[in-house]
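hi! just following up on the protien thing from before. the input was this:
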Amino acid sequence: MKVKRKILVLDDDRYILDVLDEALTYEEFEVKTAMDIKSFFSLMTEYQPNLVLIDYLLQGINGGEVCHQIKSENQTREVPVIMMSAYPRVFESLGTYGCDEFIAKPFDLYALIDKVKSHMPLGHAG
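and the predicted 3d structure came back as:
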């Protein structure tokens, strides 16, 4: 049996989560989504994703801080983090927080999927 590559998405916009879930599932990734920081960190521990997508501006917390926490932990520092934001200038002025990639919203879904694939370990999906 082939192992699916796992992606965890953090965004406080349900529409964005639904679109990403559908598109990435279609590309044969296993996807979990979170709308708040508490469920995100419990999923990080339980689900152990191969890659994380995080919105930069979240209600009550800066997505960059979430990225920094992931990159600061021994267990998760190797997990690629892709930040997303509708405010690329804000993101650039505040720093990257150690993220592996940045995607400006609104994003081209195919470009996003290509960036996700470029950060995934090679192997079989499906």
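The mean pLDDT is 90.
The longest strand covers residues 6-10.
cheers
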